[in-house]
Amino acid sequence: MSIKVIGLIQLNDLEAFEEYRSQVGDTVALYRGKIASRGSFNAFLWNELHCGSFSAFVELEFPSLADSQAWASSPEYQNLLPIRTKAMKLTLFSISESK
Questions:
Q1: What is the number of structural domains in the chain?
Q2: Domain holding 35: CATH number?
Q3: Is 80 helix (H, G, I), strand (E, B) or coil?
């Protein structure tokens, strides 16, 4: 069963974001993941959970929950945290698809 990791992004610094984005894919690939899609937020259709505002999203795919957790806590990804903090505010969560 594959795991998807969804990131809700509120951009702070576009230049820092481009720097982060140019490096993060390599860290994902090291842990058997891939970037499935990226895009911009358009509008809430329902927001009963009162999700905060965000401007973009990313969807990652990993073969397992263990792979996604290993990536998120990896030294390679942790090295990107200073630039990520400058670039954005991020909510990152994993989901399992039901068939």
A1: 1
A2: 3.30.70.100
A3: coil
